[in-house]
Design brief:
elongated; mainly alpha; 0% strand; 193 residues
Length: 193
Amino acid sequence: MFEHADLNALIAGYGYWVIFLGCLLEGETVLILSGMAAHQGTLQLLHVIGWATLGGVLGDQLLFWTGRYYGERLLPKLKRHQPAIERVKGLIHRYPTTSVFAVRFLYGMRLVGPMVIGTSGLAPWRFALINVLSALIWASLFVIAGYWAGETLQRVFGDLKPYRLPIFLTMIAVVTFAALVRYLRSRTKTSQR
């Protein structure tokens, strides 16, 4: 079994990378759990927000550029996402700045939204600036929510230190599961072509 010092070193050593990768893929659950880890003092709150922001920005930038170069061919093949794609197209034409900011927060649009925006002709510098602001606010909100959840859980259950390993392992499991789902979806789409 892990000793307390070993567990702290494990979480401190790999926790930020898990956050970064989790925010490249999806993020909200990882952010809440990492906020709880920050509450326990295992991770630094500002570092968690910084790594989460970086992962969120990079993920959406990659999706934007994918849409910019391959969107016209790729988006019609995403049959299951067509309703979300149409909603984002409508939003980007009516409210370009707001849609870039909001797409990160809208359920079901986090992945296809930046690709659709990439096809819209929006200036890359404009997308990048709004993307950074949106990612910073998104990361801050969810990490702070996790921090407050940690505070609440500590009041209810007392010392949460014995639960650090399960929380960290849950973060890793969520990131791994999200990566696996994405991989399987991409293989399914490739085999259907």
